[in-house]
Write a structure and sequence with these properties.
DNA-binding; alpha/beta; Arc Repressor Mutant, subunit A; 12 helices; Rossmann fold; transcription
Length: about 250
Amino acid sequence: MSSNASIRLLIVDDHPLFRQGVRWALAGEEDVTIVGEAASGEMAMEWLESAGSTYEPNVMLVDLNLPGMNGLELTRQVRRQYPAIGVVMLSMHESDEQAFNALRAGAAAYRSKDVKPQALMEILWRVARGEYVINDVVLEEPRVASRVLSQFRMLPEATPTNPDATDVPIFTPLSDREIEVLERIASGGSNKEIADSLKISTQTVKNHISSILRKLSLNDRTQAVLFALRRGWIETPSEIRQQSSEEQEE
């Protein structure tokens, strides 16, 4: 697979044989550099602190079940201190609980360790480009998709104190009503149609849309729908009609 970017990978796993296996699997891949290894979360953070900008990875491959600081806590710390690094989390077995926890921690991808080398490369390239691929697992297992969606709907609202801040959480939860509005936008509803179906005013719909865009730091409703779809927050028909005329409404 080709890409305009390059992968600078840090492998974090307590099994030397697994780390060597990753090196072997990625050997010869174009524009992929394994910049380092760490056997624990603590060692990974020390490595990042001493690496400097020259060797800083843009992708980390992290074992969920690390000794001491586990993969989830490591991911949280990396996302706080090194937001440009995408974390690919691996576990022995895929499960809805682990997928949800990885997503909550800020991981950009979640897979089991039996992932094939070609599939792993696809994931690494996508994460290096700033994409999120947890939902590929979610969409393969409807139970997981349903649970992730319901769990996010139960989360409290988290509006950034500074809408222009660069450290806005990747997975910002929306309220139940905002999710409903997004679902209807994705299905092609106009502001008036959404208002009628939810029995609220058109102005209230506009207020919800403004709130959604502010929380997600996005510019228009189409971007918000795509953002929510990629993260499994909403379910829509296979075809989504463009709402260009609605985007121009004040």
